[in-house]
Amino acid sequence: MSDSVKYLLPEDRIPRAWYNLAADLPVPLPPSLSPATGKPLGPDDLAPIFPMALIAQEVSTEREIEIPEPVRDIYRLWRPSPLVRARRMEKALDTPARIFFKYEGVSPAGSHKPNTAVAQAFYNREAGIRKLSTETGAGQWGSSLAFAGSLFGIEVKVYMVRVSYNQKPYRRALMETYGATCIASPSNETASGRAFLSANPDSPGSLGIAISEAVEVAAQNADTNYALGSVLNHVGMHQSVIGLEAIEQMEMAGFWPDVVIACAGGGSNFAGMAFPFLGKKLREGKDVRVLAVEPAACPTLTRGTYAYDFGDTAHLTPLMKMHTLGSTFVPPGFHAGGLRYHGMAPMVSHARELGLVEARAVHQNGCFEAGLLLARCEGIVPAPESTHAVRAAVDEALAAKAEGKPRTILFNLSGHGHFDMQAYMDYLSGKLEDRDYDAAALNASLELLPKVAAE
After folding, report:
1. How far is Cα 317 from Cα 215, in angstroms, rounded to an integer?
2. Which of 11-15, 328-332, 378-382 is the least confident region?
3. CA nearest 110: which of 152, 79, 140?
4. CA 33 to CA 40: how far, in whole Å?
5. Which run of H or E residues covers position 148?
6. DSSP type of residue 134
7. What is the pLDDT of residue 313?
8. Are the C-beta atoms of residues 146 and 175 closer than 8 Å to each other?
9. What CA–CA distance (Å, rounded) separates 385 from 387?
10. What are the b/e assignments for 344-370, b being 16+ CB within 10 Å?
11. Residues 114, 93: Cα–Cα separation, whole Å
12. pLDDT digit string (tens) for 239-253?
């Protein structure tokens, strides 16, 4: 129907395999390195904190990785997620553009994160693991792993960035409702946390610091593994169900997107939406722009350096080649906590270097303005992170209006903002500040990038 608003797939159309962009890239992804030897990582380097199945996925160059049936069965609780034509927003903007969004907020945890949380919990359970440690920024990932852990009988401990721990008490409550333990980071529970608190007792925390704490716990306890909600290849691959479904749904709608948009912090929801479309472009020549949108206060893709760096602040992780602001960089405490990460997924960074990905940095007031427009036109209150994608979609629609030419815009609405209403209260009351990064602190952080012979 030409006037449809929702494009829905039946449960039997849930993808049966995840898509791996590595199979279609014209240049292979640079390997992650052991910080001890400077050599490419082997399975033994990762085995203390990850199950072997995920290690194999991390280095795979196969185009498709079969989704286990127990994982697909749980996906049925919310997948396939809807594709929505934002007709009321189109009308409000008086644009000739066609605006579509893929809505991942229908998951039990309210975001795209369960797509990989369920998979990671499954593989750990199969490997006999009954405890997982992790970090979370805004709480979307922590909520999702807590949800997945409850399904597979896994005990979950979450180190939540302190500024978000204080800003978002209901996210914390959701994790605890699912049975997880949530701890403000930096904490006194770990050596790395105590070191950060000693240096700065009032530290707002960062994802890099929280990762250090979670990795330390996993590395020091044989019965505990580590789970990561973004950045790594296998995480982005698990999220590819978003784009794979969206391709089918856009075909149902009768349009191919001119531009695909998603917010980007660590890169997982961006990869999940954009990579299947990039695969079509690389294999079949189907033209499409893909745009990653990040906060101006933490502009990893637009301001960061492409270099080998640690994924955490205490330097417990392997070295990954990625766009980075430096592992010691602590961004200001803006509301989009899930985008406050110093690095970008190596696969996203590599695609950016190859010219396959565009990037744009935006301030949070403009994002919340766009978020309110979506809420008042389409009824969905987006998470602060997702408002970055909405902002870019609005800008693309206004550009189409200025040119007097139609274009088809697709963005990933990666989660709802029902637990983020303090941010909207701050915006509506005029208290929300546009924060920029500290240039001196950024330069100092970049000066500390590790020296790697492979570069």
Report:
1. 8
2. 328-332
3. 140
4. 4
5. helix 140-152
6. E
7. 84
8. yes
9. 6
10. bbbbbbbbbeeebbbbbbbbbebbbeb
11. 33
12. 999 999 999 999 999
Which of 212, 223, 431 has the alpha carbon at shortest distance from 312? 212
Residue 304 tokens read as 């960061």
Per DSSP, the three-state class of 359 is strand
Q: List the one residue out of 289, 351, 358, 298 whose CA is nearest residue 321.
A: 351
Q: What is the dihedral of CA 135, 138, 142, 147, to 10 degrees?
A: -170
Q: 151-161 burial, b for 16+ CB within 10 Å, e for fewer?
A: bbebbbbbbbb
Residues 6+ apart with CB under 8 A from 416: 105, 110, 111, 380, 381, 382, 383
Q: Using the predicted structure, report yes or no on whether residue 453 has a pLDDT greater than 80.
A: no
The answer to whether the beta carbons of residues 145 and 156 sit under 8 Å apart is yes
The pLDDT of residue 12 is above 50: yes
Give residue-wise pLDDT tens across range 74-109: 999 999 999 999 999 999 999 999 999 999 999 999
pLDDT at 1 over 50: no
Q: Are 368 and 241 in contact (CB under 8 A)?
A: no
Q: Using CA atoms, how far apart are residues 167 and 317, in angstroms rounded to an integer?
A: 28
Q: Does domain 6-13+68-110+234-446 have CATH number 3.40.50.1100?
A: yes
112: tokens are 């795209």
Window from 60-64, 161-165, 174-178 with minimum mean pLDDT: 161-165
Strand pairing category for 131-136 and 224-226? parallel
Mean pLDDT, range 10-21, rounded to an integer: 98
Domain ranges of the chain: 6-13+68-110+234-446
- Contact call for residues 246 and 274 (beta carbons, < 8 A): no
Of 36, 45, 46, the closest CA to residue 234 belongs to 46
Quick check: 80 and 11 in contact, CB under 8 A?
A: yes
Residue 340 has pLDDT above 90, yes or no: no
Place of tokens 């479309």: 277
Q: Which residues pair with 415 in a beta bridge?
A: 111
Phi, then psi, of 320 in degrees rounded to 5: -120, 140
CA-based radius of gyration for the chain = 20
455-to-9, 40, 307, 450 alpha-carbon distances in Å? 45, 13, 8, 11
Q: Taking all residues of the chain, what is their mean pLDDT, rounded to a whole number?
A: 94
Q: Which residues of 110-144 are buried (b: 16+ CB within 10 A; e: fewer)?
A: bbbbbbbbbbbbbbbbeeebebbbbbbbbbbbbbb
DSSP state letter for 33:
B
pTM, two decimals, is 0.95
